[in-house]
Amino acid sequence: MADDPPPRDPRIDSVLSAIEHLPAQQRRTLRHMVVAEMPDLEIAKAMEVTAEAVRSSRFRAIQALRAACEA
Fold first, then answer.
1. Distance (Å, rounded) from C-alpha 71 to C-alpha 45?
2. Under a CB-based contact definition with an 8 Å cutoff, are residues 65 and 15 in contact?
3. Measured between alpha carbons, how far is 71 from 34 in angstroms, rounded to an integer?
4. For residue range 11-35, what is the model confidence (pLDDT) as tens digits?
5. How far apart are the C-alpha atoms of 60 and 23, rounded to whole Å?
6. Whose CB has fewer CB within 10 Å in the chain, the N or C terminal residue?
7. What pLDDT band is residue 62 in, cutting at 50, 70 and 90?
8. At what angle are helices 51-70 and 40-47 packed, to 10 degrees?
9. For the chain, domain boundaries
10. Rounded Cα–Cα distance for residues 47 and 28 (Å)
């Protein structure tokens, strides 16, 4: 039908599923980084952790998402 939306890319479902399976701190870090577009220092303040913990959490989250999407 003309009103049907285009089919959704299956990679989107893979990414969303991978995000759901991340540890809570990694999900929060990604949300602050991507949705709120916050810099590391602001994320650290909001999460009450160090900026280094934010960078580490972000790195681990991105690695996990890449691995999940390549599988």
1. 34
2. yes
3. 23
4. 788 888 889 999 999 999 999 999 9
5. 10
6. N
7. very high
8. 100
9. 22-70
10. 8
Spatial contact of 53 and 41, defined as CB atoms under 8 Å apart: no
Sort 66 into a burial class: Cβ within 10 Å, 0-12 / 13-18 / 19+: exposed
| Residue 35 token pair | 């949705």
CATH top class, domain 22-70: mainly alpha
Question: With contact defined as beta carbons under 8 Å apart, do 26 and 49 qualify?
Answer: no
pLDDT at 54 over 80: yes
Distance CA 27, CA 47 (A): 12
**Rounded distance, CA 27 to CA 61, Å?**
8
Q: Are 19 and 27 in contact (CB under 8 A)?
A: yes
What's the token pair of residue 19?
């995000």
The alpha carbon of 37 is separated from its chain's Cα centroid by a whole number of angstroms, namely: 12
